[in-house]
Each structure stands twice: as C-alpha cells, then as structure tokens.
Amino acid sequence: MAQALADVTGVETIKTLVACLGVPDFTVDELAQQTGVSRRTVDTVVRRYQYAFDRLPSGKQDGPGRPPVRWRLRSNYLDEVLAAVDSHQSALDADWRSEVADAPGRDSAEASLIMAAAALARGSDDAEQAKQLVAVARNSLGAAGFGSDGSPWTGQPDQELAGRARFIAAVADVADACLSDDQQRIDQAQARAIPHLEDAKRYMSATEWMPLAQKVLRAPGTVLSAPVLVEKSSVSYFRKLFPTLRAFLRKKDMPTGFVFMADARAEQPASSTPVMSLLKFKNSAETKRKWVDIAGLPDCVVVSKKTEVLEPAAEYGAHFILHRENEAAKIEIANVVNWRAAWGDELPGAVTPVASPRVLRASGEPHTARYALDAGAVPDDQAQMAWEELPVAERHAALGEALSHLPPQGQQLMALLVEDPPVPYADISARLGIPVGSIGPMRARYLDKLRRDPAIAALITGELDTLIDMLQIHQAG
Amino acid sequence: MYPGDAWKVHAALAHQLLDTWPVCPKAQQVLQSELEDWSLRTEDNAEKYLRLITRRLRSADIERRALHALDGVQDEFRQVDEYLRSMFEAALVLTRDCYQGWADWPVASVDLGVAAVSNPVYPDPASFGELGVVACVPPREEPEAPAIVKLTFVPGLLGPPSWASVPYLLCHELICHVNQAAPMSSEDPFAEGWMDLVALQLHNQWAEKIFPWAPALARSAATRLSDGVLRRWRGLPEPHMRTRALRSQGREAAQWIQEKLGPFHDPSKVPPELIRLSLQLNRVSATVADRLEFISKINCGRSNPRLQASLLARLRLWLENIEKADRVLSFT
Q1: Other CB atoms closer than 10 Å to residue B133's CB: what's the count?
Q2: Are the CB atoms for B255 and B231 separated by under 8 Å?
C-alpha cells in the first residue's frame, strides 16, 4: 500500500480528490473514467483516505461477479479532503497549472484581463474592499492563464495578452503595496511597474490604460524612474532626500551648473535623458539670479521653504513644491518626475485638455500632490478639483476630436446651433448659405455622425439631449 | 412624429406580424426601411401615421400572409399598453412566487415605466429588430419608494424580434435587479452575467404565460439577445466593452457551476439547483467587490484545484442543507 501510494503523483491525487467532491457518490471505475486517472491510482487514493468515505450498500450487478463498491464522501470530512488537496498542490512544481487545467480560450482570457483591469481601476477607499479588488485582479489573471506575477502558465500566449497581463500584475502589486503602507514595498512595486507603462499603451485602449497608469504614478512611491538634472549647489539637499541618487559624468549637452543624476533603484529607467531639473532655492534673490541660467532646461522642480520664492518661480513656468516636510516633498518630487517620465510634455490624448502638469502645488501633507493649470491663479481647492473633474475634460477632448472629423460646414453649423442666446435659423441660413429647411436635417445628420464617432460613442448613451448638452458645455468651455 | 407615439405604432405592427415574421422576408425588408424613416414622417397623429405606414406596406407587394396580418393592426394599436401591462404583471407574479419559494421577496411594490428615445442606445452592429427596446431599474431615491422597471423603446429598431424580447428584458430586470441585495452596478458580473443566465432559463420556462401570442419567438429572441450581447464585446467603445466582458465572465462562471451541479441534479425539485442557488445568492447582502471576487474565484478555480475543491465542498454542504448560500458566496 505504501509503495502504491508513493507511485501516485500529486496531480493524480488532486484530480481524484477534487472529482470525489464533484459527485454525490461513485465507483472507482466511474471516477477513473471521469478523471482520466488509472483505476489502480483512484483505488489507491480512495483507500488512503478511506476514513473520509462511506461505503454505500451495493446495488445490483448486471453481469456476473460482485457488484462494484460505491463510495460517498462524508460531509464531516470535507475539511480533511480540502487540506489534502491544499497540501498536495503546495508540493507541486511551479508549472502545475498546465498539468491540471486546459488553457482558456482567447476570448475568455481577454475578458478575464478586462475584468482584472476593471477591478484595479475601480479601487475603493475602504481598505477591505480595496484588498478584495486586488484579489479579483489576481484571480482574473489566473483565469486568463497568467500567474500573479503576470507570467503565463499556458505556454506561449499571444504577445498582446502577455503585455497586458504583465502590466496588470505590476499594477496589482502597486495597489497591494499601497495597502500595506510599507514604503519599501511601495517603492519596489512602483519601480517595477513604471517600465511597463509604455509597453502597455500599445496593447490597451486609453480608457483602460489611463486609470491603471494613474494607480502607478499616483502611488506614494519615492523612486525616480528617470534621470534628472540637479543644480550643483542643491545636490547635497536632494541626496539627503534621495540617498540612492547617483551622479553620472555626461559632458555632452550638459548645461553648466548641473549634475546628471539617476536613482539607483530604477533598474529600467523610463528615459535615458533627464526629464526634470531639480533646484532648491533659499530666497527670492537667488531665484532671480539663477533663473537666467536655468531658462531653457527641461521643466523644473523648485523646492523652497519660503513661499515668496515660489511665486516668481511659477511665473517662469516651473513646477514647484513647497517644502514643509521631507517625506512629503520626496513623494511629490518622485510623483512629478515619474509623471513627466511616463508622459513627456503631453498627457495622453484622453486628458490633453487639462494640459501638462505645469505646477505641482504641495499642501505640506504627504501623498497629496495635485496638478493644476496655473499656479498663480488657482487656489488650492480648485487645484484639487482639476484631476477630480477629469471625466468632464475627457468629454471635452472626445467632443473636440469628434467635431474635428466633421466637414468645415458641419463644424460651423454645430457651433451656431449651440450658441447662447440661440441664433435664429434665418441668421444661420444667411451666414452659412444654406436653406432654412436644410438646417434641421443637416443638424440631425451631423449629430448622428458625432454620436457614432468612436471618440464620443463611449461617453454617451445615444441620447440626443446628452449630446446637445455636451456640445453646449464644450462650446462654453 | 414623436418617438413616444412612434414606438406604439411600431409595437402594434410588430405584435400583428409576430406569427408571419419569420416566414415573410419581403415584409421584413419593407418594414425595416419604413421603421428607419419614422423620424422623417410629418404626421403628428399616431393613428394617421399607422394608417400611412400600413398603406405603404400594402403597396409594397409584401407576402400575402403578412398582408392579412395587417388587417387588425388598428385594433392592436389600442391594445399595446394593455399587452405591456399583462406581460409585466405575469412576469412580476412568476418572479415573486419563485423568490418566495426559494429565497425571499421583500420588495413592497414594483411599477412599470415606459419611455422612448430616437437613437440606438447601444453601439452594437445588431441585426434589425434587435435592441429596439432596452430595460433598466433606475436607482430608488428613497428605499420605501416602489421599484421601477423602465422599458425604453427605440422606434427605428422596434420590429417583431424586439417586441418578442420584452418578456426576457422584464424577467432580467425583475429577477436580476429588483430583488438584488447588492448595490446596482453595470460592472457587476454576477447580476449582469450570472443572473442573466438564470433570468433567461426562467423566461424560457415561463414564455407561454408571459408572451402567449408567440412563446417560441419570445424564446428565440431572448436567447439571441442574451447570447448576442455576450458575444459582441470586442472592439466596442467603452464602457460597453468592459461591461460586456464582465458580463461574459459572470455567464461563464454560472455555466461552469451549472455543469458542476449536474451530477447532483434532483429531478423532483423544480426549479433546478442552479436557479435555486442563484436566487438565494442574489439575496445575500454583498458589495460589488464581493460579487466581483466571487466570480473571479470561480473562473480562476477552473485551473486551480484548491479553489475548485473549496467551492465544491461549499456546494455540497449547501445541497445537503447544512450551510446557507452565503457560505458559497464567500468560499475561499
């Protein structure tokens, strides 16, 4: 018996035990046929766990010989059977999955990945639900044929699914790390995820990619994912903030007075060239004196404890961070560098109208980096709104794009039709040189075109009124 | 012609052509083009519009059977509201009895709301006659307020298949949403995918009672709509691609559980195990995250014996009345 059991593989035991759970009762032959495991093996496993089974009264046998024994799993031994499955599964090799299951079909795998991404994008302020959503993402990766690290267990999946899975797995790690509040874990997860951002853009729609990219880039990590230029007299300050910053000698195209530095923790930098310049100003006189030198550099992060320094810096178009607390400043600097590394000068199409993050306004609290359109004009609370109102901006962008696909006459007509106060049809007719009777049908045709435009179809539900409202908002904006 | 009048005219025509629709391709073609042009008609009176459209069908040399069917269309026009009301009442009573038999039905009252819009609600490349009506349960402003099942008709698409799909849509809303003990979300794969399979199966059992005029057409329209919506998700604009993909995940999970419950099927118990379990699961107080996790665990469990064994154990204990459905929902 002992030898027979030793010959049975973990996979066969697992298949047999799971199959026992999935039928009300069975004979060894029936279970062998159902699982594809040999009769001898099923018999060995059943005898090994015999205490967990009831032997049922034998039925009538059709042919000669004794009727086969029927077994039934005892309800009060289910936990033991689960523990046995668990222990056998834990002992299997890394590629056990391909031995116990078939790879999912492509449609099913893709739908699972969409579900994984949707769960992560959904997020939750409730920690328990946020953990559940990370679990959903990882389970869905499993259902799609990938491990929780995004590596496939199904052999060679297609490149697109593999690229999406890698990114989703990396975002799940970031979300998980953020829930742990462990700074080192957050830093590591964010540093691993950032290099996947660019690749994932190739395989995901902007609407799917954007919320996940935000999860990565808004995570309170402190790794600088791309090189920066640090003003020479500020190097010691920034090295104190980022002890892993290393200086590199780069003579070519190097602006005077700056040091090329990169964070050693960024194993795969998102850019080979510096994406930001970092400066620390002590007072406003220094701001004016130094500004002449720094004009023409990549965007700047100016750090100062004195608010009066920040106003003139903002006028020159710098991002700035009001430094009140080291940890907060560190995270905010990393945030702005990482945003810039991921998106360059422009944000992705869906949020272009919000403009690139011109100013980083720090509230002095950790993890509260906000972006606004204009440093001087936007008070803190409005700056906070800028991102929260992203869907409106998305609508503007989509509508702008859809309008640009209309012929010039269509664009003019739609603009006149949503003017406030309304322009009389006779005036529209005179201005555009079209008969009054044609305005209505043309309007219907152009609205239909707008509604069907891929850029806008995602944002509306087909209601004419919704589209007209959007046009009016767009016009007003 | 206003959409609020046009849908009634088109519903009357659809009702009258139910029997002849599948065998009259020419009538299908002519009706499609007439319905598409509804918004160009200048009549402001529904009965006049109905006479006009009937005249146009008659003059288009359509099949004799379809011509004869048009004879009673004026009477049908006056009955449309009554037909809708009777479909709704029948579906409501059947759903309530089913929930009361196997779970619970705490909903005080449910009303029917009807609206019409000019443009298609979904961006599907659907065949004519599909998606001419959509349904939803709008969130209640106050918990004591009656639940409302709202049907929205799209006159340009409202052919007989859409009219015949009304009972399935009512069943979907009543079975999946009106009595669900979780917040409403179009991204809930349990409500939209899993429970939709249950709604489809119950609808198919009840078709004679809800749509006595053409139960077979109601079944085929329901299956086509439910399955079609699940199949068509790739390439759709967001949020449709995401909500459809999630729906398909819920459906896959339900089908897999149905298969797993197969060996335990007890023919003496009606409805079958999946339906009983689902009605109870839908009444378990849960968040959308709970439901997403449940569906994702089931689908992951297909390739993970540990999860699969745990689920099967909970199902056995539920089948033996040792544990309640909430333990199935939270299996780990």
Answers
A1: 23
A2: no
* Chain B residues with beta carbon closer than 8 angstroms to that of A452: 123
Task: Using DSSP bridges, classify how beta strands A300-304 and A319-322 pair: parallel, antiparallel or unpaired.
Answer: parallel
Half-sphere exposure of A23 (CA within 13 A, CB side): 18
Q: Exposed/middle/buried for B332, CB within 10 Å: 0-12, 13-18, 19+?
A: exposed
Inter-chain touch B296–A82, beta carbons under 8 Å: no
Token representation of residue A475 = 């016009």
Three-state SS at A262: strand
Identify the DSSP state of A146: B
Structure tokens at A249: 């000698």
Q: Is there a contact between B91 and B173 (Cβ–Cβ < 8 Å)?
A: no
Q: From the list A85, A112, A132, which residue is nearest B306 (CB)? A: A85
Chain centroid to CA A192: 13
Candidates B299, B317, B319, B322, partner chain A, best to mutate (most A CBs within 10 A) = B299
**Phi and psi at residue A262, to the nearest 5°:** -140, 150
Instruction: Estimate the crossing angle of helix A326-343 against helix A183-201, to 10 degrees.
Output: 10
List C-alpha distances in Å: B96 to A419, B89, B103.
51, 10, 10
Q: Among residues of chain B, what percentage have pLDDT more than 90?
A: 65
Give the confidence band of A156 by pLDDT, cuts at 50, 70, 90. confident
Q: What is the pLDDT of residues A104-131, one digit of tens each?
A: 888 999 999 999 999 999 989 899 999 9
Say yes or no for a CB contact (<8 Å) between B296 and A136: yes
- Residues 6 or more apart whose Cβ sits within 8 Å of residue A11: A92, A96, A99, A100
Backbone phi, then psi, for A321, in 5-degree steps? -130, 125
Selected residues 37-56 of chain B with any CB under 8 Å from a CB in chain A = 39
Listed in sequence order, the DSSP H helices in A36-182 are 39-48, 78-90, 96-100, 106-122, 127-143, 159-180
What does residue B138 show for φ and ψ, rounded to 5 degrees?
Answer: -65, 150
Residues 6+ apart with CB under 8 A from B15: B76, B79, B80, B83, B160, B163, B213
Q: With CA atoms as reference, report the closest residue to B80 among B112, B57, B121.
A: B112
Integer Cα distance of B62 and B47 in angstroms: 22
Q: For residue A13, give both structure tokens.
A: 């035991």
Distance CA B8, CA B184 (A): 30
- pTM of structure: 0.79
Q: Is residue A1 packed enough to be buried (19+ CB in 10 Å), middle (13-18) or exposed (0-12)?
A: exposed
Neighbours of A42 (CB within 10 A): 27
Question: Exposed (0-12), middle (13-18) or buried (19+): which is B19, by Cβ within 10 Å?
Answer: middle
Burial label, A349 (beta-carbon count in 10 A; 0-12, 13-18, 19+): middle
With contacts defined as CB-CB under 8 Å, which chain A residues touch B134? Answer: none
Q: What is the pLDDT of residues A423-450, one digit of tens each?
A: 777 778 777 777 666 677 677 778 877 8
| Cβ contacts of A260-266, under 8 Å, gap ≥ 24 | A260/A227, A260/A229, A261/A227, A261/A228, A261/A229, A261/A230, A261/A235, A262/A224, A262/A226, A262/A227, A262/A228, A263/A223, A263/A224, A263/A225, A265/A187, A265/A188, A265/A191, A265/A223, A266/A191, A266/A194, A266/A223, A266/A224, A266/A225, A266/A226
Low-confidence ranges of chain B (pLDDT < 70): 129
d(CA B98, CA B283): 13
Residue A379: is it exposed, middle or buried by C-beta count within 10 angstroms (0-12/13-18/19+)? exposed
Rounded Cα distance between B47 and B42, Å, is 13
Cβ–Cβ under 8 Å, residues B133 and B153: yes
d(CA A242, CA A220): 14
Residue B123's nearest CA partner among B137, B139, B134 is: B134
